[in-house]
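User: structure tokens for this one?
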Amino acid sequence: MQASNPPCDCGIAVPADLQHGSDIAFRHKLKELVDHGSSEIRLDCSALDPVHSSHIGLLWQARETCEEAEIALLLNNAKAGLVRSLEVLDLLEFFTLANYAVKPDRDEEAEPHAVPSVSSCRLTFAATPAGVDEGLEDFLAFLRGLPLAKETAFDLRTAFYEVATNIRSHAGVNAGVDVAFDASLGEQGLTMVFRDRGVPFDPVSREDTLDLHKAAQDRQTRGFGLSLIKRLIDDWSYEYTDNANVLTLIKKCGGE
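Assistant:
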């Protein structure tokens, strides 16, 4: 491999929005750096907050490309949510992190509350990028009033974003028809219920075909979503009723 005369800029910003060809532009830039003989490529992950399984797939594809070309790959400015998602998927060991100092502590609690200020929430959001972001912010406002460990909050945030983004991208929800969401804290933990009037789809019955321990050898670049959700939560169920998909997720969190 020729490593002389590398390009001055060996960094690439990983796009948060993978629509409108931004993922293609990312791959083209990566290929340019690889073809130029860069000895090291840095991926700026600062925009990946929150993180979706599609981001994981893009990073994994970049890793495979660099490994094949014997080029070092660094993840710069990774946020805690991205690191937690890689950890959940057993992929963290395959990446080198740079400029990352804080890792979610599974034993660290959020600011203590004697009792939750509100034990349930109900909201709707549009099946659009802006709508999903607004729904996530409303959900996070609810979570901030609960006595949750930081890692639990990261998991709930990521699970919400994963499901909501999948509904937006794949359910075919008609314009003007919002997605309904309910969350409640009870004895089982935190229960989240998504209702959408899109194409019937049962993720619970789908076989998880992703072999996380052989992902490197299998060149896995897609299909992380189901595995991510399953590992972030403790139980889930699905039904199609009243012309709507109803997906229920339960996360144990030690709340009352």
